[in-house]
Amino acid sequence: MSGAAAEGGLLDAARAVKERAYAPYSEFRVGAALQSTDGRIFTGCNVENASYPVGLCAERAALGTAVASGARRFGLLAVASDAATPTPPCGMCRQALSEFGMELKIVSTSRDGVCVSWRLGDLLPAHFELQDRSGEGADG
Ligand code: THU
């Protein structure tokens, strides 16, 4: 499968899971699809809560499912929302994803299908890591 086809499939998965988002407070639905380097796809949506800070972003929901399934190496993350312009992952999600490598490509689509992509390391140039545990996320 070509890179563009793989990206299109992952964006479709992100758009599909966005429909399951639980976002009654913000009404901002987000879907995320994370592809591991062995080709598996893990999806997540935002899950809000009446106690607002308890809410979970789509990207971290997908990451949690991936790690629970044994995946730690990722090549591509697709994000879908109904925003007018494609949105990058929030700062907390950038830090969460950075645990597993800074080379991750992130592609985000707007409601109209406009796509923008970034490299995680460019979105978060200086991530926090515990000095004596560097690299453990992807390799351990
Ligand atoms: N949200 C995500 O799911 N991912 C992001 O990267 C940014 C924000 C969610 C959190 C909240 O449920 C809603 O979007 C509005 O902030």
Task: Describe the structure concisely for a colleague.
This protein is an alpha+beta fold. It has five helices and five strands, in the order αββαβαββαα. It has a five-stranded mixed sheet with strand order 2-1-3-4-5.
SS elements, strand count:
5
Shape verdict: globular
Q: Helices and strands, in N-to-C order?
A: HEEHEHEEHH
Task: Please compute the radius of gyration using only Cα atoms.
Answer: 14 Å
The ligands bound in this entry are: tetrahydrodeoxyuridine
Helix fraction bin: 25-40%
Strand order of the largest sheet: 2-1-3-4-5
SS-derived structural category: alpha+beta
> How can the largest sheet be summarized?
5 strands, mixed
Which residue ranges are poorly predicted, with pLDDT under 50 across at least 5 consecutive positions?
Answer: none
- What value does the average pLDDT take? 94
Strand content: 15-25%
Distance between the termini: 29 Å
Number of helices: 5
Explain how this protein is built.
This protein has 140 residues and is of the alpha+beta class. It has five helices and five strands. It has a five-stranded mixed sheet with strand order 2-1-3-4-5. The protein is globular. The mean pLDDT is 94. The chain binds tetrahydrodeoxyuridine. Tetrahydrodeoxyuridine binds next to helix 2.
